Amino acid sequence: MTSVRAPERSGAEGDFWDTARWRPAVVAGRWARCLGASRGRRVAAWLLLTVLLLFVAPIGVGAVASAQSRTDAAGASTIDAIGWMDVRDSSGTAVSDYVFATNHGSLLHPGNTALSTVLDLEFAGFMAIAVTAIWLIGYAISFRWLQLVSVPLTEVADTLAGQIGTPMVMTVAASVGAFFVAWFVLRGLFSKATLQVLTMLAVALFGVGYLAHPMADVLSPHGLLAEGRDVGVAVAAGLNGDANPNPQSVIATMENTLADNFVRHPLQVWNFGHVVDRSPACRAEWSAGVAAGSDARVASGMQRCGDTAAYTKSQNPNAGQVCTGLLLLLFAAVLLLFGVYLSGKIVVAAAEAIYHAFMAIFGFAAGGFVYGPTQTFLVRNLVDAFVSAGKMVAFTIYLGVYALVLDDLFRQTPGQGMEVIFVGGAVMVVGVVLLRRVGKNVAARGNQAVARIGSVLAGGQAGAGGAAAATAAGAPSGSERLLTALAAINTVNANPVAEYMMGRRRFPLSSRSRLRQDAETANMRIAAESGRRGWILNYNRTREQIIDSARSAAGEYGHTPLGAAVAVDRVVDRGGGLGDADSALTSAGFTDKQMRLDAIRAYNYRTSWGPNMWDGDKHLGQAIASMNVLKLGRTPANVALFQRTAHRLANRRFADPQLRFSSFDAEEQALLRAYFANPSKPVIERINQVATGSATTLPGITGTVEPERAALMNRFINVHLSRSYLAAAQAEDLPAASEILRKMALPEYWLGTSKLTPSKAIPTF
């Protein structure tokens, strides 16, 4: 009988039917080896993967989002995939209602139909990616996600604390800690024994409150995470000019700003070639069309608001818009990367704080009483919890600064279109890199703090071992005991627990500790009262007001001797003194110290000489004093003071811009011109008599003169002479200025207002 043998399978066929050959990990490894066999294959694989991730995948997302779009009862087209996120721009428009206004073509224009279909897919993909990124950032920083898990986490933590923090466990842990105290005392390590006792007291004191509600310091509305977030939001709001920020409103504003800069404006550039929001009418039309969910209404709105270029762009889809859409998809992908990275950092920081809060339960319940690594474990968890709050502050401030920079970027170049989008994408890439560095720096600082505390505790443990070895070798000498006792006393003296036990007196064992405590308490109360009443703030405001007066002078006259003279004048006018002038001028940019000192010295001469040189009008006395200062030397500072005083006389003391020669008739003008040419006592006395009603006529003027006209002429004399004096001062014509000033001083001398003679008081040149 002949047996029939089954045909044998070849090696390749046998491997094909081997199930282990087709496991996903094995297949992936085989493809990886095949693609990495040569440099050309590796480059081709990376290029293909990049195209798939940047273009094919977003368009696929757009197709899914377009399939999920709906039209609600009001007629607004909404993408369900992102509509539930409720992201809105600064106009209050839901971003999920945005439309891409274009010509969808017809049977006669199949090209427009094809282009519009591709544009719609790109638009939906761009919206899904960009809105998701913005929502992630807002959702992470608003802590709405933390509210979902806070209740179960709090219940679990309370249950765990109740199970572990029992009297039996704490008694056993305290007994182990007391054993270490006794051991240190027997070995003569009194400082370590004292430190261990104080540590156990601190753990017991703070552990009672912590174990009652372990998660309260982390998950409560006023916990570490929320306070860290609020501090970051306050700093970010301060950068945006908000002095009294509300965290929720600031977060909503950040979300609105991101929606404007990353979705609304790029979409308008893509759709119309430029940002149509620059026109208020077009902004309103676009928002109304989007709210109605009609791309036809958006396009017709551009025509109604007068933006014909935008309307033409929307009616003529082209391949350039498809290319722009691909670039915006890349832009949205980078934004999504930034949003995922930032929100991930915030969530991880919160998770770290929650984790360390859970671990601290074991420390306060038992580990904190036991000397050694368990105490270090408790300290590390407490420090890491605070570091997590610090990370929350850093990430929130970073987001506020980053949103402010991008908003300023889009505002500074409102008409640059695609250039702004390219720059915004580049800035976002840089932002991801910088955010990574910020996270590393904050984590590094936290690790350094933990490492230092750990090294201190570890050093103490090493010292304990060394002390034990020394004790085994022989008993400590008297000097060593003295040093040990002094170290113990110093440790107790500097410990905060001892401070509370001694009536909150710092360093209670030090000399004059009570007097030092009273002085420090008085200083703190004064500082607190000053802050409560706003004294310090008001003082700083006054200082800033004085500095601003000097800055205004520098802005008008430059950093010149005249600018310095005006600055000193304005500083004193604002309530400052000559002692404040030098610092104010320095802050205003007057770097020449000699110029500052000369200006202050000249002003001091004018102020001190004025009352002694003329006992009549104060401003006239200052003008006379400034001319006498010129006798000390025609330095730039003295000349500048002279010109500044003339300016004050003309534009403040006798300022009346509307009063000119044309305000009088021919006879009055003739009388005034004759007086200016040759001032005489009878004329000025007659004018004053008519002004007071004791006379009715003036020489050279027919008929009676009303008192109002005479008073107007009397005022015009000083107004006209002060203008002439200012012109002579600006021209540095000192003889003319001296003569004009004499004419201004004569009426006061004639009428008895001043008893000094003008010819003696006013210098001649």
Task: List key phrases describing it.
disordered N terminus; single chain; 765 residues; two-stranded antiparallel ribbon; mainly alpha; 31 helices
The general outline is flat
Estimate percent helicity. Answer: over 70%
Task: Give start-end ranges of low-pLDDT stretches.
Answer: 1-13, 61-77, 458-477
**Separation of termini?**
152 Å
Q: What is the rounded Rg?
A: 42 Å
Q: In DSSP terms, counting alpha (H) and pi (I) runs of 4 or more, how many helices?
A: 31
Number of beta strands:
2
Largest sheet geometry: 2 strands, antiparallel
What share of residues are in beta strands?
A: under 5%
Overall pLDDT confidence: 80
- Major sheet: order of its strands? 1-2
Describe this structure in words.
Among the domains are: 478-533, no CATH class; 592-761, no CATH class. The chain is flat, with a radius of gyration of 42 Å. It is mainly alpha-helical and 765 residues long. The longest helix has 56 residues, at 418-473. A hairpin with a 5-residue loop joins strand 1 and strand 2 (77-79). The chain starts with 10 loop residues before the first helix and ends with a helix. Strands 1-2 form a two-stranded antiparallel ribbon. It has helices at 11-16, 24-35, 39-67, 80-83, 110-142, 144-164, 167-186, 190-212, 216-219, 224-239, 247-272, 280-292, 295-304, 308-315, 319-365, 373-412, 418-473, 478-493, 496-501, 513-533, 535-557, 561-573, 578-587, 593-613, 618-629, 636-653, 666-677, 681-692, 707-730, 734-750, 758-761, and strands at residues 69-71, 77-79. Helix content is 75%, strand content 1%. Helix 8 (190-212) runs parallel beside helix 18 and helix 11 runs antiparallel to helix 15 (319-365). The chain crosses the membrane at residues 43-65, 123-146, 167-187, 193-212, 322-341, 353-371, 383-405, 417-435. Keywords: Membrane, Transmembrane, Transmembrane helix.
